[in-house]
């Protein structure tokens, strides 16, 4: 009976729409059209659009936790998934900048047991051109060192030099970061990124997420008329094994500040930023897809999805974070909005 009631409430709320007001600095027809577009496609999550340092749309849609009738807000937390990889790339580039690691060093310097590792460079791993891939995931809770050892033992190689998006590249890079610094990845992210940037609602899913007051629940997109019918639970084991690749969360505001800080040389020197993101044709470099005037990122884990597009100067951008993945790619949508709004 309770389930029937929740389904009925869900249907009614979807039909009548959200009562949360649009928090936009501008009321232009174009921005209103964007807002209506997101509603029409049943977007569930938060959006932040900034042009030249000025917020032109900041709004949330749907529910963070439908069972508690808790709506998403602009302070809601969402899993970042693969958008986290740029943080790993930044930590790695900080070591390059300090002369502790060389971009063109062979993988064999750190993992000689991996086949063909003498032919693979660390730069290729950052850009997903290493040929490394893995078909096996750890099925138990492991420590960082155990996860890295597991990855090195189960990695395979094919087509070195060709782009092939494989998270194992960043797992192994995380292993190098921890070995060189003698600190955990989590400690380094907090010390070198979160605290210096004063990010108040960014952290790790297993360690920090439940301490937040604005957490969200992920929902499977089974039916647009019953959007909150099925939860999408990600196990602790699954989260644990995404070391350096997708086990963090943030808000739209924190994520914008983070990406802005990277583009504005607050975490790396200008030369290091230019080297890390040295492409203009949309190629993957250092955790981002790089175009001439802007960069794009995308992440999907369980039913969380993140998409962003940001100008190279860090003053303009689109952030989309969702706790209900639909058939629309948020990275493509962020890029289209960025270009449509001429940010």
TrEMBL record:
EC numbers listed for it are 3.-.-.-
The subcellular localization recorded is: Membrane
One Pfam family cited in the UniProt record for this chain: Beta-lactamase
Q: Does the keyword Membrane apply?
A: yes
The signal peptide, as residue positions, is 1-24
Beta-lactamase-related domain sequence ranges:
36-327
GO molecular function per UniProt: hydrolase activity
Entry keywords, A to Z: Hydrolase, Membrane, Signal
The protein's name is Serine hydrolase domain-containing protein
Organism, per UniProt? Loigolactobacillus zhaoyuanensis
